[in-house]
Amino acid sequence: MATAAATGAVHRLTVLYDADCSLCVHIRHWLLGQRWLVPLRLIPAGSVAARQAYPGLDHAATLREITVIGNRGQIWTGTDAFIVCLWALAEHRPKANWLATAAGRPFARATMLAAAAWRGATRGGSAACDEQCEIPG
Fold first, then answer.
1. What is the pLDDT of residues 27-48, one digit of tens each?
2. Contact by Cβ (8 Å): 17, 45
């Protein structure tokens, strides 16, 4: 799941999310409300904060696909990033462990494809979005 450049224990994760995507913002709020086994730092992808924290990262790519960065420089994207986010949560770690297996990975991938399709359909002020895309209060 992680890049080969950095391995080891994960003690902190940074999640780069698209702040202009209502689904991404909703998931950010959901993550903030969960009990963490690993501390999460949530930063808008492509933001000044993200660029300062990770100057060598392809920030255009982080706007296209969820990116999670571990405290030792591990980088996960897409389906792997989704699984790692769940792994960081107390209630969802067992599910993340299963999703990381050969049997569970197709379900994780399908979830990411569904999220990408929904995101694409509601992006850019589409009429399909209307009030359904409001940020939770």
1. 999 999 999 999 999 999 999 9
2. yes
